[in-house]
Structure formats: C-alpha cells, structure tokens
Amino acid sequence: MANSRFEYVRNFELPDQVLLNTWIVVRVDGRGFHKYVMRINIIECAKAVMQEFGDIFLAYGQSDEYSLVFTKTTNVYNRRSTKLASTVGSLFTSAFVFHWPEYFKSTPLTYPPSFDARVVSYPSIKVLYKVSYNPPPPVHLHILRSQNMRDYLSWRHVDCHINNLYNTCFWSLVHTGESTPQDAEALLRHTDAKAKHELLFSQFQVNYNDISPMFKRGSTLFRTPDKSIAIAHVDLIKDETFWITHIPLLTPRQDDH
Amino acid sequence: MANSRFEYVRNFELPDQVLLNTWIVVRVDGRGFHKYVMRINIIECAKAVMQEFGDIFLAYGQSDEYSLVFTKTTNVYNRRSTKLASTVGSLFTSAFVFHWPEYFKSTPLTYPPSFDARVVSYPSIKVLYKVSYNPPPPVHLHILRSQNMRDYLSWRHVDCHINNLYNTCFWSLVHTGESTPQDAEALLRHTDAKAKHELLFSQFQVNYNDISPMFKRGSTLFRTPDKSIAIAHVDLIKDETFWITHIPLLTPRQDDH
Amino acid sequence: MANSRFEYVRNFELPDQVLLNTWIVVRVDGRGFHKYVMRINIIECAKAVMQEFGDIFLAYGQSDEYSLVFTKTTNVYNRRSTKLASTVGSLFTSAFVFHWPEYFKSTPLTYPPSFDARVVSYPSIKVLYKVSYNPPPPVHLHILRSQNMRDYLSWRHVDCHINNLYNTCFWSLVHTGESTPQDAEALLRHTDAKAKHELLFSQFQVNYNDISPMFKRGSTLFRTPDKSIAIAHVDLIKDETFWITHIPLLTPRQDDH
Amino acid sequence: MANSRFEYVRNFELPDQVLLNTWIVVRVDGRGFHKYVMRINIIECAKAVMQEFGDIFLAYGQSDEYSLVFTKTTNVYNRRSTKLASTVGSLFTSAFVFHWPEYFKSTPLTYPPSFDARVVSYPSIKVLYKVSYNPPPPVHLHILRSQNMRDYLSWRHVDCHINNLYNTCFWSLVHTGESTPQDAEALLRHTDAKAKHELLFSQFQVNYNDISPMFKRGSTLFRTPDKSIAIAHVDLIKDETFWITHIPLLTPRQDDH
Q1: Name one GO biological process term (chains A, B, C, D) (predicted).
Q2: Distance between CA atoms of B235 and B250, rounded to whole angstroms?
C-alpha cells in the first residue's frame, strides 16, 4: 500500500517454489513435547488444516508429528515452501492451543507450545492401476509400481511402530515403579522387537497386539469421494490394508499428466 | 530412529539456508485479521519469540504484523528458511492464542487464528560509526551509510504511518455513524496526508499528533546491553530518534566481518 | 589445500541440487548464432558430452540448441545445477570450437562463439508398459501414461517443426532474391502451416515432405543396449515412431522406484 | 515461438537468482588440466569475458582457475546462477580453444578441454573510506572494515602462493631429473614454506623472491576509470599493495546503498 523510496527492499525476498507435479508433504513436529499426552488433540489439529486446505488429500500422524500431503497438482500459494510450512504450522499450532481445554480441562497449558514444519516433495508414487482393455480379460488387473510418496508414508509408519513399542515398554516399566527412567532406558537399549513383546507379556500381562490400533499404527485422515474427512488406523505399508480400497486417492483424474 | 528400507526418502528434503553474514528477517503476518483489535497482544507474542531466540536483536510490529530481525552472524537452525519461518510463526501463534484471555476476557476467540511467516535477508545496513583518531577531532563524528536492513525497517515504518492515518480517519467516520464503510472508503480514496489530518481535526477535533505513539509509530522491541528486552514507540527512519542512541545494536562486536 | 583464516568464505556457496528421482535436462543454447550453418557440428558436440557422461541416455537437438537428458537416478556431481549446467555447457562449447575446422574449413571462426545452459527437471514420463500376466492374454498390452518428460521433448520437437518450416520459406524467398529479409518476414507473419507448404511448392517447386528428416525432425541421440550412441531423425511425439521400439530407454531397471 | 499443448513444461524451470546487493563471483576451474602450461592463455580468456560483461570490475586468476567478480548492483541475466555460470564458463572455454594456437602453435590440442563454473555471492567487503569533514582534519583518514569479498580474494591469493611454491619445488625436482614425481611428492609432503625456500636455493640456486610476480601472485584484471582493462600481479591481501590505490573499484557510486 505504502509507496516509498524504501519499497525496493521487497525484491530481496527470494522465490522458493516446489517443483511442479510432485506431491508436497508438510510435516509438523512438536518442539520438545511430552509425547504421550497429545495424540487425540493432534488429530483435531490436522483435521482443522485439512478443512482449510482442500488440496490436502491425506494426512498421517503419530507421536507428536503429522504429515499433511497435498495433491501433486496443487497450486496453493504458488507452491512456495516457507508460505506452506509457516501457514500449515501456524494453523496446526493455533488449533492445538485453541482446542486443548476441550481435551485436557484439568491440566491447563502452562506455557505456549510450538511446532516446526518442513516441506518435502516426492515425484512418484506406488500406483495401483485397474487395467481395462478390449477384449476384456478374465480378471481385473493391478499393476503396482513402488515409489517415493508411498515409501515416505511407510517410513513414518515404521517409525510409529518402533517408537510405540519402545514407549509402551518404557512407560510400563516406569509407571509401575519397576524402573527409574534411566534403568528402563538401559534395559531396553539393546532389545529387539521380539524381546520387547515378551517383556510386555511376561512382566505386565500385556499382549501388544491388543493395544489400540491408533497407538500401534497412527492415524490416517483422508478425503472421501464426497470431500468429507474420514479416519483410519490401519497399516499403510501393505497394498491391501488401505490403498487398494482407496485407489482414487492416488490417481485422481486431475493429476493425470 | 527407525532404520528401514524406506529411510532413503529423507534425502528428498532440499536444503534452503540463507546466505551467511546477512541479516535475517522473519515477518509474521495475520491471516485475515480484524486488524484493529490486537496490537497489545502481538507485542506479547513478539516478546515470547525474542525470549526463545537470543539472536533476535530487534523486532518491529504494527497492525497485524511483526518483523523479527536476527543478527547477521546467527547460526540458529543452520539458517534454514522453512525451519526459521515455521518455528517463529508457530511460537508467535501459540503465544497469541495462549495469552488472548488475559487481554480480551470478554470476547473469547471463536476459531483458531493463524499467521503466515516469510524469510528475507539483507546484506547491508545503515551503519553509524563513531570515529576516533589521534589527534582527537573537536567532535565525535558519525559516518552514515544508507543501506538495506534499515531501509526494510523504514519501509514497514512508512507502511505503519500510512495505514494508521487511514484507519484513524476510516473508523472515526464509521464509528461516529457519519459514514457507512463504503462511503468512508470512497471519501478517503483520493485524499493525501494533509487532507486526512484536516478531516480529523475539523470533524472530530482530533489532532493526529496527539494519537498514541504506539499506534502512530508501531512498537520496536530491542535487546539492551544486559540482554533484557525493552520497548520503544519511536521514529525508525531518522538516525537521531533511535539509532544513534543504540549504535551497538547495529555493530555488535561479533558481527565484525 | 591452503588452510588460512580466509577459508571460511567457502561456506558462502549455497547448495543447488536437483530433486532426487526426477529426469534432469540440461539444454544448451547458442548465443546469437547464425542458426543455419551449424547443425552437423552440434550433433558432434552433443555426442562428445554423451561420451563423457554415461548417465545421459538421450539428447535431442535442433537449430542451435541441444537438450541432454540424464537418467532420473543419476548422481553425477550430486545433481548440483550450476555444476551440471557449466560442465555440460563448457564441454559442448569446447567441442564446437575444436571440431569447427573439420566441418567448415573454408570459413574459419572469427570470434569465440558461446552457449548458455539451463537445468530443468521433470518428475514423470509417458511410460510404455509391456504387461505380462498369467494366464497370458491374447496380445501384449501397452499402457500409456502421458507425462512431463516426454512432453518436454515433444515441446522442443514442435518448436523444431515450426522453426524449420518458417526458415525454409524465409531463406527460399531471400536466397532466390525474391524478397528482402524484411519483406519475407512481413509476407510470412500471418501464414499458417498449410499456406507455407503451398508457397514452397508453387513458388519453389519444393515439396516440404521431401526435406531431409534431420532438418524437419531434429536429431535424437540415444544410448543403445550395448552403451554405444545411435542417432535417429524421427518423430518424438507419437509413441510408434520411436518410443515403442525403445522402451528400455524410459524404464531402465535401475530406475524402478 | 511454438505454441503447443506441450508448452506448460516451461514452468518446471525453477528460479535461482542470487540475493540482491551482494558481489557475485563466478569461479571458472579447469577440469583435469596439466596446470603448468596455461597461465598466459587463461588471462586472455578472462579478458574476453570482461569485455563481454561490463559489470565485471575485477578478475583474479592463478593456476587453472579464474574468479570473475560482478559489481553488487549488477542485474545481468536477472542474477540467475546457472545462466551466469554457464555463459561465463562457455565464453571462457571458447576463448581458450579459440586462442590456443596463438600461444601454443607447436603443441596443438588433442581433445576438447573443459571448465566448470560455480557461483558464490558475498554480502560485504573490506571498505576503505576517505573521510572528509569540516573543519578539515590534519590528515585524510582511512577506516578499514575487513569483510567477505576481500577475504574471498585473499583466500584464492593464499592458495596461489602455496600452490606455486609447491609446484616450483616439485617441477624443479622432476625436471632436473633429481626425483621421480612420486619421490618429489613424498619429499615435499611435510615441509613448510621456509624449508621449500631453502630447498630451491640450496639445490637449484633459485631465490623464490625472484620468481615472476605473475606466478607468485597470480593475475588481477581490473577495470580502470576509463573502462579499459588493466592487469596487475600484486599482493591482494594487504591494503597498501593494491586496494588503497584503487578505492573506486570497491565503492563505485552506483553501489551506494
């Protein structure tokens, strides 16, 4: 608005757009959080961001982080990195503080919590095709291509599994008074998954398979064909548990370059 | 933490560091705010960010925006743009929602407000030297170099002045019932500063010079020699009103490359 | 090698790598060339670059430009843009001047000619699948996906066609003395392709279809399965004229993410 | 020129401009050169580039590299990195091959040599002020600020010195038949500058101080006030040997932001 001899300073802002036709992931991460407390709350935050940005078709969260995935054709904010990271991160943060009292009435926040956000983009995805041709074949056919975008989500999914198994053991040891946090850490340091399962079962009568899917597998928010937002706590690595039944998420018509 | 065959996806994150030895400005901006309401609150937010980041030596705010300036030698987060923008923006947002009830008890927030943040860097600054030499000259001598960093702050300062004069006229017309918002806008569209001053004085008996400096000049937060944070509502364009008395802000010893 | 107090200046070099798993195109362009003279020579230059960089699987040239395409998995020079552009451009230039006398003995260069180079990357490609399944279908099946990388080559191909048709008309008019360059330009300005074909045929008895494929379609260099470099002057837009018979170029095993 | 449905692919080119108001250095480097042979020739190449780009005010070369420095206000090619690197590198290369026969008639090039080029930018410089004030002081006064741009040149200058002293020893040992290259390398590996001076003097009666300044100090090309290009083989680290007598190079009026 203000035209002055100082206005030239605007030109020092450098462009930072993300390559076209790549999936854009904004991952929001808690800064120094007590991770255990907040899982329900951050689902609410991711949902608030998805409601504002129609081009986010899927979001996956676990622990104190959420990855929000924009369609590869999105043009929101001209695909500028810092604009995307700061806006998504700010809205997520705002929703977190705003909704906190609804979830944790008895333990008010004592300081303003914050998140960082980063932007990564992926050029390819594991595609599931339904091939149709003429004359028609005996069965529908899926051609699978294993690629980066799904690998990203698989990476976060593995992280969820490993962290949650560790944390379940750790807090079982600590909360029951069996160990100090230091002892628990030392005890768990060199155990593999199998040993952790056995520890839970033998010492705490916990069958890890019975743990809530939300904790074991994280929370996947996705946009349904009618544009509403649904949630699932499922395996995102295998094709069968989520992707085959949600093929349109990965191959929307408008992406068809 | 989790080592899996998916971990390669980390390498898709591209670096985005800001050039070394340049002042880094992070400007936080309200997204669609009712601008009038919030000036006190955002000073609090900027202060919270300055308390967390010791390398911010000055912050200037007006309307619904705040510019936070890092020293040119800062190495916080390796000077990565999206990390800086998202973290500063998130902390600012969090403080805004967190502190809101202290300022506006009677009007609770009805939805989570958010901010965007951008990063710009400036290579030079208007330097004020105190020259000392031998034999001593009759007076101390200032050599001034007009440069980018101070021009940036002057740019925001001019913006503050123009917006505030306009808004003072606009809301005077609207709140007193003299005009509809549309009429007020039409009336003010082609008036210059002088005409606006006269309008305020003749119709509303307001001498614009008597308006609070906080509104006329915005709010400058700066770090004092003892590292505490002070506030001033002063002219940032002229040398005499702020800079000459705060030379160390611009020429800290550690910046002396 | 030299360790001195000045060495810190190395850290001012900013990273500029290209996103992983995308095809990298380096396009080399003559700076202010007489375009007509040089087609054979630039094929030699592109070949020299392909001999040095084994990760270039295809190069397409026309007029005074050449586009060299690296496999999407290449890691040459850590995918740094300026390194790729400058090295490819320098080698191309060097070969141009070095080999000039072999082609144009009677017209020695009078000044050092130069090229610029740019880097663009593409995340996707028009893929041609050979689907095999069980029980086997009556015929092999191609699934086509139209995408960016092939569209880039098609774009340059269309450019080749339009420029060459125009230039053939232009130089026919000028060289036969029928028009001055200005008149020829004015005459051709608003003609479509059909009118240009007719002009060539009626005034110069030239059937454009008989023009050498090298001029009409440009020159495609590609790496054969035995890693040698072959050349073709073919339509790169349609599937049938080149791509279907060279499927491995687009889907090398090592790209299979 | 060609408007087609493929033209959208242009938008995949990402911007890469250098921050405003910073000195831009393009450093051109020989790829795998026999370094000894070429010093005169590369001065010619740098001069050709300076003749084409009026905004290069200084160039410093040694061994097989040249650093060309653009004024900080240059807007050539909109300050795009790859465009600058590729064009400067190409012109440098072209001049190298083009002028080769003039210098090395008896040893023609056997293959096309090439260079890479990189872009670095520096925000500050060691400034030399001439302070004038009223009433006039007894002497003119220089205020020195040690900064990045001059440090860059000092860095290359130190590199020149160290490499040249090493190479003088190495080739003295090898050319006289006293050592194999391997022995020479082993002999020199852990010697300091003083030991190298003594080796030259005692074994080869060479006083290193008598070596040509062009080899000891490299070649500085600079633009004189009348815009012609001059050359100097001087110390670029100290203020007195070059900079104080060429103050306008560093503080041209048009840079005065």
Answers
A1: tRNA modification
A2: 16
